[in-house]
Design goal:
The protein is of the alpha+beta class. It has two helices and eleven strands, in the order αβαββββββββββ. It folds into two domains: 32 residues; 107 residues, Rieske [2Fe-2S] iron-sulphur domain (Rieske Iron-sulfur Protein, 3-layer Sandwich).
């Protein structure tokens, strides 16, 4: 008799657990941050302690960003993420506005295929060059969060 009692109690507990999960799951998704390109975690701040990183990132939707490419139907953009003085995060598009090619990390600066240079924050080193496209970025709870939906105005 006691085995049947334990079996019924286990079944009731299982049904209650499934019911609780069905109630809690929608609540979790209603309070979670949006899963779009406005809150994109691109790097851990601990990674950036070693220096800036160049990262290719898939986007949820195309934003017509310079250098944006389609890979297997998914828009991809390359960005350089770094920590600036005072611990502020910086994210710039890794696409040269002057020579239509990718920007790479070259020592203490960013350099394009023709040798034009920018700081890690996207500011041109040579006078007369345009700044690299930059995005709003902030360090939150050990992660750099970038908003790809609204690039910052140059300057």
């Amino acid at each position: 008799m006691s085995v049947a009692r334990y079996a019924v109690a286990g079944l009731v507990a299982f049904v209650l657990l499934v019911g609780l999960m069905l109630l809690v799951r929608p609540l979790i998704f209603s309070i979670a941050p949006p899963r779009d390109d406005s809150h994109y975690a691109v790097a851990a701040t601990s990674e950036l302690a070693q220096g800036p990183i160049l990262r290719e990132l898939p986007l949820n939707t195309s934003h017509g960003l310079p250098g944006e490419q389609l890979r297997q139907g998914v828009p991809v953009v390359a960005v350089v993420v770094s920590l600036q003085a005072g611990g502020a995060a910086s994210a710039v598009n890794a696409w040269s506005p002057t020579h239509d090619c990718r920007v790479t990390i070259a020592g203490d600066r960013l350099r394009d295929c023709d040798g034009d240079s920018w700081t890690f924050g996207g500011v041109p080193i040579d006078a007369g060059l345009p700044a690299l496209q930059s995005f709003p970025a902030e360090a939150v709870s050990g992660a750099v969060i970038v908003d790809f939906t609204g690039p910052l105005a140059p300057g």
